Amino acid sequence: MSRIIGIDLGTTNSLAATVDSGIPLVIADASGRRLTPSVVHVPDGEGSILAGLPAAHLRVTQPEQTVYSIKRFMGRRGVDVPDAERRLMYRVEGTGAGPVAVRIGDRAWAPEEISACILRKLKADAEASFNEPVTRAVITVPAYFNDAQRNATKKAGELAGLTVERILNEPTAAALAYGLDRLQDRARVAVYDLGGGTFDLSILELNEGVFQVLATSGNTCLGGDDIDRSVSEFLLERIQESGGPRITIPERRGEYPLDQHALAMLARVREAAEQAKIALSTMEATEIVLPFLAPGFSFQYRLTRTELETMARAVVQRTRPHCLRALADARLQPHELDQVILVGGQTRMPLVRAFVADLFGCADFEETRGQLRLGTEHHRPAGPQLNTSQNPDEAVALGAAIQAEILSGGLRNVLLLDVTPLSLGLETFGGLMNVLIPRNSTIPIKAGEKFTTAMDYQREMLIHVLQGERERAADNWSLGKFTIDFEPAPRGVARVGVQFEIDADGILHVLARDTLTGVEKVVEIKSAVNVDDAAVQQMVDESVTHAFEDLAARRWIEARLKSMEILAAARKSLTECGTQVIPEVREKIEAAMVQVEQALVEDPNTKIGDLAQLQTATGALDHASLPVAELLLDRAMEALLRQRGIVLTPVTE
Ligand code: ADP
Ligand code: MG
User: Fold this and answer.
1) 80-88 contact pairs (CB < 8 A, 24+)
2) What is the reported pTM?
3) pLDDT tens digit string along 24-74?
């Protein structure tokens, strides 16, 4: 079997890793670089596409052809991407239910095509390093990625010539890299991931090698870039003060056109700002030197850690509500956590570490730095341990490599479990939600149910896949619709078996089969509903708020369906043998039918009628039609026997 590599396809940086003789290692490129900037440059005309560092160098000077942060757009529809997230230097297209695309020159690029360029580079670096072809990979995604986003990631892998063996959650990968699967006791871990452009806080529970995501919260537009920007603005002010040109940073494409000199200057200032920020993670002060920044102007400034922290504090503070939110969702207090692990390059900043230690009440932060404390043989302080033993920007890729090695059978066996954030089900006749996989089910999972047709000689059945916690189909999110055809048969005879399967990657496969003919259809649901944390919470909250009316709606719809069925049967029997019963019976049935019809009237606002009245009227109709029903039954029986050559003769003593 060929080797499987682990890939962290990041918003800012991507990297690949492998396990070599039991040791997880990051794969470096030809020049020894371990991180590949997630940037792709598409040149005008002939030249070839660049990915990684050479592309990153062109980000400021050729903004319209240089794509960064593409991960934000993976698997998302126009409506899912608010204006604030489109504030980029390249052109982003896509509205409504249409997919988001990047326009470069006369070609629209799907996000997965751009990501594929980054993956191709990582694949090539790995091949050069092993001197053998690489075709299989485990790729990580944020825990909150929905089906569509996971599918797009998988697609990107395929476009790059990789078979994606597993899509793995980033916090789970990080926990694997930290070796937390080896903890003996049940442990709860918070994963604090602050990257270049995104922040995620996930809470995991580990139990004998089983990982479960308890809660996740974050911000897709918050990270180290925001700090770089503040530092750049600060430097631009100092530049102007010391007699240099006045330049401000444009927020979005074409905000105000800058000439090539200004763009080049901005690029240098931004790079210097990031480098200074990185240097100040280990030093107290750093000298920023920018010779010949503008014609006849050179710039020099000594930036201190204190100055940087003053600028960075506001950014770091913004992670706070998300941490509290995830804790609340997991119903945990900080002291109930065993560890907090740090992920993402930006967590190397001492200010971030101190902030996290303070927020989670990590009592022994200084002492335990760099060591992994296992079990309970040590005195356990009140708060969780802040574990910083791994390289924060490499942990996710290393964890992916460990998972890859597990898949190829090379390592200890760990089970990785995730849960479904919301219930999945189907719309049934009458507009109700029929849940097949309840919320919080552990994946992978399979569940099935049989459905019958609601109408006579129905030729097809609509399979409408829903996600959510409400009783009425319309109040849930629609994930997709398809129809399955079958041999027409009387109502209730044709049967369709529907199976939902959520695979280990969290992708939903829906199978519908006509049980008579065996004809089946399998549909992979590419959900375009963004299941972000806040939306999940809102859905759950609403289901609680509306629990009472939802239940009333379900009972009403079910009663209404039953009444309509009885009404239709009564009508049918009257047309078929209404003349054979005495007029009194007939009139009684007709009167009862009118009563049911009246009781079926709904309040136009609530779409609910008087349940008790409907039940009484339906009961009365059922009772009144008994004589006709019996008559019909007898006739049907006779016909059947006659068909089989049996003639009934009255029994005589
Ligand atoms: P992502 O997950 O978004 O791809 P990374 O985990 O690679 O991102 O983090 C990138 C961010 O980390 C950048 O903003 C970078 O400037 C920052 N960073 C990297 N190293 C350091 C460091 N030593 N100190 C402070 N910030 C750092
Ligand atoms: Mg990351």
Assistant:
1) 80/528, 80/530, 84/221, 85/220, 85/221, 86/252, 87/251, 87/252, 88/252, 88/253
2) 0.66
3) 999 999 888 999 999 999 998 788 999 999 999 988 788 889 999 999 999
In a domain, 515, yes or no: yes
Per the annotation, the verdict on 8 as an active-site residue is: yes
What tokens were used for 641?
A: 């026997």
**Domain termination site, one of 526, 545, 564:** 545
Q: What H or E segment, with its residue span, contains residue 339?
A: strand 339-343
Out of 29, 165, 170, 205, the active site residue is 170
Please give the sequence-ordered ranges of beta strands (E in DSSP) within 393-519, or none if there are none.
415-416, 418-419, 424-428, 432-437, 442-443, 445-452, 460-467, 477-485, 495-502, 508-514
Question: What domain range includes position 293?
Answer: 224-313
Q: Which atom of ligand 1 is nearest to the CA of 344?
A: 6
Kindly report, residue by residue over 623-642, the tens digit of the pLDDT. Answer: 888 888 777 777 777 777 77
499 CA distance to ligand 1 middle (Å)? 43
Is 404 among the domain residues? no
Question: Where does ligand 1 bind, in terms of residues with CB under 6 Å?
Answer: 10-13, 195-198, 223-225, 274, 277-278, 281, 344-346, 348-349, 393
Q: Which segments of the chain have a pLDDT < 50?
A: 367-380, 415, 527-530, 652-653
Residues 293, 230: one domain? yes
CATH at residue 630: 1.20.1270.10
Tell me the pairing of strands 13-20 and 36-37.
Answer: antiparallel
- Judgement on whether residues 13 and 147 belong to the same structural domain of the protein: yes
Give the containing element (helix H, strand E) for 172.
Answer: helix 170-177
Q: Which atom of ligand 1 is nearest to the CA of 224?
A: 14
Q: pLDDT at position 377, please?
A: 41
Which tokens is 232 given?
A: 């750049």
608: in domain: yes
State how many domains the chain has.
5
For residue 90, give the CATH number of its domain: 3.30.420.40
Asked if the structure places residue 407 within a domain, the reply is no
Strands 210-219 and 199-207: antiparallel
User: What's the rounded Cα separation, in Å, for the pair 135 and 113?
Assistant: 17
Q: What is the 3-state secondary structure (H, E, C) of 574-628?
A: HHHHHHHCCHHHHHHHHHHHHHHHHHCCCCCCCCCCCHHHHHHHHHHHHHHCHHH
For the chain, percent helix, then strand, then coil, each to nearest 5?
40, 25, 35
How much distance in Å is there from the Cα of 580 to the middle of ligand 2? 79
Single-letter amino acid code for the residue at 251 = E
